[in-house]
Amino acid sequence: PRFPAMASDSGDRHATLKRCLGVLRDARNDSEQFAALLLVTKAVRAGEVDAKTRRQIFDAIGFTFPTRLLTSRQPPADCPPHTFRALGLTLLACFCTDPELAGHSQILNKIPTFNDVLLSPCDPDSTSMVDDVYQCLSAVLATARGPRELVTKGTVSALCQAYLNGGHGSDRALTLLVGLLAIAEAKCWQRDAPQLLAVLSKLSGDFLKAEDMTKFELCEVLPHFIPLSPPLTENSQGSKCLCRLYKGLADILGSKLSQSQRDPALKLAASLVQACGAEWIPAGSAGSKFLALLVNLACVEVRLTLEEPDPVELEGKKEVVTACYVLMEMGIQECLREENPLLENVQKMQLMRIMEEAFGAVIFYLRQVKQEELQDPFVFASVRVLGAWMAEETSSLKQEICELLPFLVDYARKLFKEGSPAVSLPQAELVSTEGSALPRDALRFLLPGFCHLTAEDRPRDILISEGAPALLCEYFLQQWEVLTSESSDPAPLTSTEMSLQTMCGVFLNLVVTAPDLVRQDKTFSSLMDVLLKSLPLLLPQKHRLVLAANVATLGLMMARILAGSAALQGTQSAKEFFGAAIRFLSQAHAAQADPSSEGLAVAVSPSYVSAWDDIRELWFLGMQALAGCIPLFPWLPQAALQARWLEGLSQLLSRVAPASVDFELITAFQAVLVELARGSEQCRSVILSHHGTEWANLYGMAALEQCLSEQ
């Protein structure tokens, strides 16, 4: 059939297109269909097709014909070899502009073909094919299933290659990679780390060499290519990239910069800190100057933005200020680092002073946050970074922090009650959220600071009056649920476990300083119930000994205060708890060979050694608390007998050299032994039958001697 030439008038054009579609629908053979198709694709390429017409083209052709075109190997006479393929891709690119079609399985299963086109040598004739492929891939990326399909079907690798080859459209390859990494970073790196590293290598090389605005443009792109895991420091190519990025950033930050140039540089530095702490900054004076400059610039930025916040201006600055928070958090860690510090003491003092001013600005900002702004991820980032400061620096800004406590407790409570998975800013999560932490778990970051503050009268009173203890009890229950659902394999300390330990510290402070609160506040009874149930489960998990020590000691100290409560009246859970607590306390010490005297000395048991620094104080507190519990619970001596603790302890003290047992340990043992001997005739006779009188005399346990000699 003959077709009229495309008329210039759009109405005529539309009519022609309609006729072509009619021919497409009714074509008797391939050549008729092909001729009509050529005109349709010409219109498509000229961008003359609206959404409705696109749909009509699809309805007329469907996926079958483009699929045949893509697989056809035989081009028509006098046509370049990839004619059919190019036509097929143009049609698919046209269909892809319809979001519904872009996610269709018939498009998704063409991803390998798209990848092939990107990897094929590109001659001048095939540039339109490459453009069509990029259009298809961009459309697929925007669909729900698309990103996963692109990653699993190898598009990341193809895009990396296309970018590195630098052929037609390679800048679009980079844009697509940025988009893919933003959605599925972990999966991309898991599958295609070598290819992504090669791209990072090229980008970091260009970044170091660039002397013009490209340097700042690359600052914007680079953060997308810095993986959070596995760390770049693990292989030599990654380390080289880091070295180039450090040098490039040092060039930038050492020059006079405008605002628009400084912001991307700070964001890039923050993304490096998130990925590998301060490891990318070399040791030595250049590195320490750079680190100090970085933290300094971050603090200045925070003060400039937050001390006189202009709502409109602040909105545009939130991302860069969040990046500055990351740098400040690193500043805190580096100022505290004692092993191989990057900073000298003078620098540390200066930075702490500068950071104090910046945190003053953060507090100033938070005091003005309105109720309707509480969902803003920037508020979360601000609370989080303040939490990092409160965890370490307890003496400065005390007054200001006390005044902010009501807001912090209220904010943490609101987020906890909502459990709201709000979106976080790119830098708002320093570490990718572990499964355990809710995306917006403010309490996790405030706990260490609260632990310090509950040891002091004024902040403790404020926390109590704001209802923090009840909130923390609820949070403890929730985190305990999370912990029990985590696998019990020995794994690195999770944030859940860390939070539970810190909360035990907060509660211990309250037990010691505010026993009446513990006695009267109902929430502590429910906390006691959880402690009773949790210790027997924790103790067998050797890698959780520190948490078990916290739970045991807190439980024993609370039991003294809550002795009258129903849960502790010889119930099964109380007996199991005390049994476990006695096991924890009794298994901490053992006899071991003493090289200096060829005899035996008392030592921390092998399974306790690695944790002893963290649990030593808790153990002594626990012993003291147990001694206090024995007179309150008449059934406790029986538990000690069942555990055969008295026999074990007698044997230990009889075998070791008395000089190896320090005074503090003797005092701890004696306190418990005296209470057991007083509280139970059976305990007394076990001690006596195991030469108790002799070793009590040997160790100078006068109170025990007296108790044993009484008739």
From TrEMBL:
<dbReference type="GO" id="GO:0030425">
    <property type="term" value="C:dendrite"/>
</dbReference>
<dbReference type="GO" id="GO:0031175">
    <property type="term" value="P:neuron projection development"/>
</dbReference>
<dbReference type="Pfam" id="PF05536">
    <property type="entry name" value="Neurochondrin"/>
</dbReference>
<dbReference type="GO" id="GO:0048168">
    <property type="term" value="P:regulation of neuronal synaptic plasticity"/>
</dbReference>
<dbReference type="InterPro" id="IPR008709">
    <property type="entry name" value="Neurochondrin"/>
</dbReference>
<protein>
    <recommendedName>
        <fullName>Neurochondrin</fullName>
    </recommendedName>
</protein>
<comment type="similarity">
    <text>Belongs to the neurochondrin family.</text>
</comment>
